[in-house]
Every structure is written in structure tokens, then in C-alpha cells.
Amino acid sequence: MSETDTDALVDALYAGPLEEFVAARDAAAKQVAAGGDRVGAARVKKLRRPTVAAWVVNQVARRHPDEVAALASLGDELRAATADRDRGRITALDRLRRERTDALVGQVREAGDIDGRPVSTDALDRLAETLTAAVMDPDAAAAVRGGRLAQALQHVGFGIVDEGGDTADVVALRREAGDPPPTEPGGGAKPATRPEPEAGPEREADTVPEPPAEALADAERAVQETADGVDRLEARRDDLDQAFQAAQAQVRQREAEVGRLEEEMQRLLTARDEARAALREAQAAQEESRAALDAVDAELDAAEGRAAAARRRRRDARRTDT
């Protein structure tokens, strides 16, 4: 299997679902080994499963390449403005960085999920930090644009760190992303500088002997088993995190329903109190009307009594006249 084919398999791993990464990685390693490339198979097997935040960054880099590239290009402009000590330009570019970062993170926040996986507030914060790191460091920018991060990045005062706070080897990350760092004039990547040991009779004694092949194989197996264990724990953590996010979404939904019911209950209670007040007013008016009616009835009875008495007097008067 060619290096290009292996690279395509690796690229597909980081583009795929997070929960399938470990199984897909192991299958890809077997496929590469079956093609006769044992070195490539070992490289694939050692790939670390991305954290949730890193997976989000990778998907954003793949689905919004133009926006991420525009952000990364600001880094070159910022470094040039810094070299020129152009404070006005630095301020304007930094404001533009914040605007573009907020806009891209806002798109992800508004979507709410990526391929059905909810994007938490913590993942959004780490996405913003990683995008900022891409602006601040050209190697980090290349690594982010490659979409193969295993951990999210953050720019701090002394450089780029990963989610654990350890210094990130952004040059290695850039190389793993398929974008090797610039070469030195005359060809070849710039080598890491190491002090040469002083010549002398002690040099041979200071040379570290090569470990036995069996011990080296045991150590490599132990490293791989540890890495596999970490992958399983991270997968379990991600599953639990996804379950937590789903439960949290349900809690928010139920809280919203309770809020609506409480508002409706409050509205009904207010309507009940208003109806009771209106009832009391109506009852008071009824009592007033009844009292007035009783008074009229009493006056009517008195008037009828007076009328009856008058009729009797008239009748008596008529009898007297006759």
C-alpha cells in the first residue's frame, strides 16, 4: 500500500464518527499491514483517539476550510505588524481575529450538534482557544487546518499547550497533519539542534547501549497496551459525556416545561383572584340591591296599608252620608 493510500485512510479516521475511531483505526492498521507496509501500519496503530473537543475542531476545520484559512492568514499579518511595531494595525487585526473566531464558533453553537453529537459549552470554549492558537502560531495553524488533532490547543504566554497543559509539539502535529514544516535552504527540514558530546576517552563509556530486541518489543507492547487502555477510557468518557449532554438537554427541556406550567399556573391564579374579587363585588352589589328591594317592599307594604285605610274611610264616609 502506498503512502498516499495510507494517508487517505488516516484522513478518513479523523473525518469519521468519534465513537468509531478506535475500531476504524485498528481496521485501517490491519489493512495497511496486509498491503505490506508494516511501518505505516505501526504508525496508524499508534494514532490517538481525539478528545471530544479535538474532534469538534477537526470537523470544523474540514467543514469550514475557508473560514479557518482566513483566520490562520491573520497570523501572518499579525506577526508582520508586530515586527513593524504597528500598534494600530495590531489592534485592528486582533479585533478582526476575535470577530472571525466568534462568528465561526457561533455557527457551531447555533447548529447545536455535529452529526448528531451535541457540542457542549466546554467544547465550544476549546474550539475558540484552538482557533486562537492557529492564529498565533503557524505550525499550530497548519495542524488545525489538517483536521487531525488528538487534543485541542491553547495559546499561552510561552507557546502552545494541549488540553492537559503540556507543551504541544506543534511541528510534529503539523507533520502528522500532512503539512511538513518549511525546509531549510538547500533542501531538508531544519534539524533539531543538539550539543555534540565532547571528544575524549569518556565518550565511549557515555554511549547508551542499544536495548535487547526482546526488551524493546516488550516495551513497545507495553506502550501500545497503555495507549489502547487510554483510548478505551477516553471512549468510555466520551460516551458518558454524550449521555450527560443528552440528560442535561432533557433537564433543560423539563425545566422549560415546568417554567411554562408555572407561568400558566400563575396566570390561572391571577385570573382566579380577579374572578374572586369580581364575585365579591357582585355579591356586595347583590346585597345592596336586596336591601334596596326590601326597603321598597316595605314602603310598598306601607303604601298599600295606607291605601286600604283610605278606602275604608271612604267607604265609612259614604255610609254616613246615606
From TrEMBL:
It comes from the Bacteria. Residues 193-206, 218-238 have a biased composition (Basic and acidic residues). Residues 176-238 are annotated as: Disordered. This is Uncharacterized protein. It comes from Xylanimonas oleitrophica.
